[in-house]
């Protein structure tokens, strides 16, 4: 009798997939097949997948031992505070390559998650020592001046990041200046592109930009146009009181 055709073997889950599945069991939730499969790819794209904080937590735990993912697209999800904390822990774990720790994550997109200054500060803290990230997109996250200050401090210490996007965040003109100043002071920085689209800057920012270009002619700075000064910008947003007409004497 002819032997039956061998059934295709199902590849067993690798270490990071096992960690993801275990985390899902502990949290009492069903695993997301898109996440499970994505952990074996170089690009894990889960943009606008309505991922909740517990989904992010399970994913972050799995990524601490992942050997494949280079790009993580998380734009348009509800990362939340707890999800952000585990993501930051993951970035810190991935700072060093060991036998069980290396995602070597290169590209991270966290735009449109609305985590504000607190989330930006958490990412900034891990970014100071991270040596693997090459691109980071934090656009449209309600990051204000304080969050930008934290990110500027990180940029002043980081030596791997090549592209940073903070577009469409209310970082203020002063936030842009602090970012450029820290970047200018960091001689070891590899940053080649700073995107501040939708954010207006002053001539002081242009001056620092030109200083950076003297030593890094390839550096690119994109912003949302110019204002005369921060004071003028403030005045434009204040409604002037209406002048009262004097009543004519009878």
Automatic annotation (TrEMBL):
Source domain of life is Eukaryota
- What InterPro entries is this protein classified in? Leu-rich_rpt, LRR-containing, LRR_dom_sf
A single Pfam family, by name? LRR_6
Question: Could you identify this protein by its name?
Answer: LR74B-like protein
Recorded source organism is Mya arenaria
């Amino acid at each position: 009798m002819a032997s039956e055709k061998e059934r295709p073997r199902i590849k067993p889950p690798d270490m990071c997939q096992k960690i993801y599945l275990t985390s899902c069991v502990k949290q009492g939730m069903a695993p997301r097949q898109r996440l499970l499969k994505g952990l074996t790819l170089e690009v894990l794209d889960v943009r606008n997948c309505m991922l909740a904080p517990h989904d992010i937590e399970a994913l972050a735990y799995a990524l601490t031992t992942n050997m494949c993912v280079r790009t993580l697209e998380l734009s348009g999800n509800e990362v939340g505070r707890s999800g952000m904390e585990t993501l930051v822990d993951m970035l810190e774990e991935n700072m060093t390559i060991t036998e069980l720790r290396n995602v070597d994550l290169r590209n991270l997109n966290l735009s449109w998650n609305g985590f504000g200054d607190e989330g930006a500060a958490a990412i900034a803290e891990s970014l100071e020592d991270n040596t693997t990230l090459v691109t980071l997109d934090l656009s449209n996250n309600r990051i204000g001046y304080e969050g930008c200050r934290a990110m500027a401090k990180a940029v002043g210490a980081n030596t791997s990041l090549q592209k940073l996007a903070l577009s469409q965040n209310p970082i203020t003109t002063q936030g842009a200046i602090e970012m450029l100043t820290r970047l200018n002071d960091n001689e070891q920085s590899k940053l080649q592109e700073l995107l501040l689209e939708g954010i207006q800057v002053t001539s002081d920012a242009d001056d620092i930009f030109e200083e950076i270009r003297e030593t890094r002619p390839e550096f690119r700075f994109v912003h949302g146009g110019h204002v005369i000064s921060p004071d003028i910008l403030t005045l434009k947003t204040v409604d002037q009181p209406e002048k009262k007409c004097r009543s004519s004497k009878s």
